[in-house]
């Protein structure tokens, strides 16, 4: 578990101000003999605390997703090995691009006519498709498969028709 420094932002100040305001109102109400004010005060504090907790969880997840995933070697992990060239200098083949040229039905992944899909050298498909469509595009991207003009997703309910894009030389 990683412990990070606490940062006070707008959400923290708004939550704290709400807690203080409710505490003041509840204390004033209790001093005047109106004990029922404790119930809405507690409900407000619980609801605001839960909303703040969900907000913090969302922000933490968004920060994790936004971090670039580097495959570069870190010198701290391999102090005896100094690479001759940075990993970015290693040329990898360009991904094979496919464009959706026709749609029959509704793609469950939200792709429509004109969407562009890339198949990397390792077989990774971006953006994601259903498993049968990814398998077809991996086969289409493999060497020796340039003869076919169009490739189809094998699921009839959300049939997508792909055409291989011309690569710039």
Describe the structure.
The protein is of the alpha+beta class and 169 residues long. It folds into two domains: 10-66; 92-164, no CATH class. 37% of the residues lie in helices and 15% in strands. It is built from three helices and five strands; from the N terminus they run ααβββαββ. It has helices at 10-31, 38-66, 131-141; strands at residues 96-105, 116-119, 125-126, 150-152, 158-164. A five-stranded antiparallel sheet has the order 3-2-1-5-4. A hairpin with a 5-residue loop joins strand 4 and strand 5 (158-164). The longest helix is centred in the first third of the chain and has 29 residues, at 38-66. The chain is elongated. It starts with 9 loop residues before the first helix and ends in a 5-residue tail after the last strand. Residues 70-75 have low confidence and may be disordered.
């Amino acid at each position: 578990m990683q412990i990070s420094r606490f940062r006070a932002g707008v959400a923290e100040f708004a939550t704290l101000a709400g807690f203080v305001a409710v505490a003041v109102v509840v204390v004033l109400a209790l001093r005047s003999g109106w004990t029922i004010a404790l119930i809405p005060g507690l409900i407000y504090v619980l609801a605001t605390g839960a909303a703040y907790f969900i907000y913090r969880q969302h922000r933490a997840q968004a920060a994790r997703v936004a971090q670039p995933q580097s495959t570069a070697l870190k010198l701290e992990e391999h102090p005896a090995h100094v690479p001759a060239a940075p990993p970015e200098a290693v040329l990898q083949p360009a991904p094979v691009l496919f464009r959706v040229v026709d749609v029959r039905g509704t793609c469950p992944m939200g792709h429509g006519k004109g969407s562009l899909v890339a198949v990397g050298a390792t077989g990774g498909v971006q953006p994601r498709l259903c498993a049968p469509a990814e398998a077809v595009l991996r086969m289409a991207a493999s060497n020796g498969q340039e003869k076919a003009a169009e490739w189809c997703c094998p699921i009839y309910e959300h049939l997508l028709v792909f055409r291989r894009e011309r690569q710039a030389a």
